[in-house]
Design goal:
The protein is an alpha/beta fold. About 35% of the residues lie in helices and about 25% in strands. The chain folds into two domains: about 40 residues; about 220 residues, Rossmann fold (3-Layer(aba) Sandwich). Strands 8-9-10-5-11-12 form a six-stranded mixed sheet, with helices on both faces. Strands 4-3-6-7 form a four-stranded antiparallel sheet, with no helix packed on it. It binds adenosine-5'-triphosphate and magnesium ion (MG). InterPro entries: AAA+_ATPase, ABC_transporter-like_ATP-bd, ABC_transporter-like_CS, P-loop_NTPase, Type_1_exporter.
């Protein structure tokens, strides 16, 4: 029995669980607050994004609330190589792109770029160095030039060169005003392939170190899909792409396949992966 100062007598079996509850609540409180303070102290978010050599993912764990997506995942992204992400729907491919592009930071484990922890890198610095190609390209009612340069101070020559590399030459020749041609809202006066190519030109002119492609060619027909994927694989950037299609003679241009499966990632050389697929 425990006698409280107000004279009330409590049985130990009532008090102990309460004490335990208090203890665990304070543990959780400390974990949240101290963890937060430590994080703030440990991660300064002031470093520039450098990617001269590799991005290294080490013992990565990530979940959406109770849903576990990655469990103890480790792999490397080497500069300049082309990676194809494969895996069933819902396996975590888009989530992996979000982790590598700093959309989510509430993971366990470590992601480093040339040895610098992602959580120390300025988000703006990363954003300056990456580009995305999604199914829905965002285009606005303005000239082709501005849709590619996105109001950064690129010269006409630079934008033209990027457009050519992205395979837009034919379109520019067709349009009376070339790069000054106005696009309709959301690029309604362009084909699906042309819209994708504008987003590729954006990545090229920006000299993005990494190009993330999430199903970039799935809205295109076979012929255009082949062309766009071929263009993506010919540019100098490191490419991390999700594609469900297999294009004979093009898919093998990837260097590696990262297979996302059951919370893990298996890495194969593209050659090895597609040889086995063919069997
Ligand atoms: N914001 C979110 N909140 C909760 N669950 C999510 C969220 N985003 C994705 N998920 C779930 O996480 C799992 C992985 O999703 P993800 O989008 O990464 O899969 P995916 O491999 O890209 O699939 P798909 O090939 O269909 O695009 C799925 O089960 C999905 O429902
Ligand atoms: Mg996806």
């Amino acid at each position: 029995m425990i006698q409280m100062s107000n004279g009330c007598i409590w049985h130990i079996s009532v008090v102990l669980p309460l004490l335990n509850e208090l203890k665990s609540a304070s543990k959780i409180y400390n974990k949240i607050t101290i963890g937060q303070q430590e994080k703030e102290l440990k991660f300064n978010k002031e470093e520039d994004f450098s990617f001269q050599s590799e991005i290294c993912v080490k013992n990565l764990y990530f979940n959406y609330e109770e849903k576990e997506i990655f469990k103890d995942v480790s792999f490397k992204i080497e500069k300049g190589k082309k990676y194809l992400l494969k895996g069933a729907s819902g396996a975590g491919k888009s989530t992996l792109i979000k982790l590598l592009s700093m959309v989510y930071e509430d993971y366990e484990g470590e992601i480093t770029a040339d040895g610098v922890d992602y959580r120390n890198i300025k988000e703006s610095s990363l954003n300056e160095n990456i580009s995305f190609i999604y199914q829905d390209v965002f285009l606005f009612e303005d000239t082709i030039f501005n849709n590619i340069a996105l109001f950064k101070p690129f010269s006409e020559e630079e934008v033209l060169e990027a457009s050519k590399k992205a395979g837009l030459e034919e379109l520019l020749n067709k349009k009376e005003n070339g790069l000054s041609e106005m696009l309709m809202e959301n690029g309604k006066n362009l084909s699906g392939g042309e819209r994708q190519r504008i987003s590729i030109a954006r990545a090229i002119v920006k000299k993005s170190k990494i190009l993330f492609v999430d199903e970039g060619t799935s809205s295109l027909d076979e012929k255009l899909g082949r062309k766009v994927e071929n263009t993506i694989l010919d540019i100098d950037s490191t490419v991390i792409a999700i594609s469900h299609r297999y294009y004979e003679g093009i898919t093998v241009k990837y260097d590696y396949v990262l297979e996302v499966k059951n919370g893990t990632i298996n890495q194969y050389s593209a050659e090895e992966y597609f040889e086995e697929e063919a069997i």
